[in-house]
Design goal:
mainly alpha, 13 helices
Length: 278
């Protein structure tokens, strides 16, 4: 019998799709929802299920930005052959994404025992949600929002890409939250910060998803729930990406700050009451 039912797969797929790219922490939300549904969060099948449905969300960002990705990859390929092409922003940006991914890969491999062990605690998730909210509020409030996507530099890419390490080490901080906050501190406008967060997250998320996929498929979570959860994750994530880009064009990040604090406090309460276990 599968550890996760079809109905639970739909709910978890929707949660993954909504929260993967919003700056609110998908890890924290999945753990909370799994706990409330009585699903053993530390079960190998459940952990594997979460890794597989993340691939659906990753596929959504690849499809949504397919034209941009094709343009950047094409410029990179042309630049490898033609020196003149190397002056184009897209060619340079492709290399920046590659270089900016290296820090999180190195830290992810070196700190794996910590990431899978004590740092995976839901107490850490709750605290990181609240602390990350403060960072996001300060970044949005003090950033001058004067630089667009075409104004990004190698320094921007490295700093924003490197900030993904915060979310890797402190689940709950949120990869999107860390990267967007860093971009805002560098005076990028909200749309540029959000798009940069997406582009820099593609290699890291794709690599992590494929790395976990090979082990996750053999956990016994059930083929049907896996397929359903992944499909729901893809559809919801695609809609979430489109909504987020429209939202940040006209609004501050205050709504996310308030929501994150509320979820962090709720998680502390559930852990303290014994409803959830770390």
């Amino acid at each position: 019998m599968s550890a996760i039912s079809i109905g639970q797969a739909v709910v978890l797929g929707a949660v993954e799709g909504v929260t993967e790219f919003l700056p609110v922490s998908s890890t924290g939300h999945l753990k909370i929802v799994e706990g409330l549904m009585g699903i053993p969060v530390d079960d190998d099948a459940v952990i594997g299920f979460s890794a597989v449905i993340q691939v659906g969300a990753i596929a959504a960002v690849l499809v949504y930005f397919s034209k941009d990705i094709a343009r950047i990859v094409s410029a990179w390929a042309r630049g490898l052959r033609d020196r003149e092409e190397r002056y184009h922003h897209d060619y340079k940006f492709a290399w920046w994404v590659i270089f900016a991914t290296i820090p999180i890969v190195v830290v992810g491999l070196a700190a794996k025992p910590l990431i899978k062990g004590p740092l995976a605690s839901l107490w850490v998730v709750a605290g990181s949600l609240i602390v990350g909210s403060g960072v996001m509020w300060w970044a949005d409030r003090t950033g001058r929002h004067k630089r667009g996507e075409d104004d990004t530099s190698f320094k921007d890419a490295m700093l924003v890409g490197g900030s993904q390490i915060l979310a890797l080490l402190f689940p709950g901080f949120s990869r999107s939250g860390a990267t967007m906050s860093t971009a805002l501190m560098l005076d990028l406008d909200r749309v540029a910060a959000t798009r940069l967060s997406f582009f820099l997250g593609i290699p890291a998320l794709t690599g992590a998803g494929l790395y976990e996929l090979k082990d996750a498929l053999g956990t016994g979570a059930g083929a049907a729930p896996l397929a359903v959860g992944t499909l729901v994750s893809f559809v919801v994530a695609y809609a979430s990406i489109a909504w987020l880009l429209k939202f940040v064009a006209k609004h501050s990040f205050n709504a996310f700050v308030i929501y994150r604090i509320a979820v962090g406090v709720l998680l502390f309460g559930l852990l303290g009451a014994g409803v959830l276990h770390s």
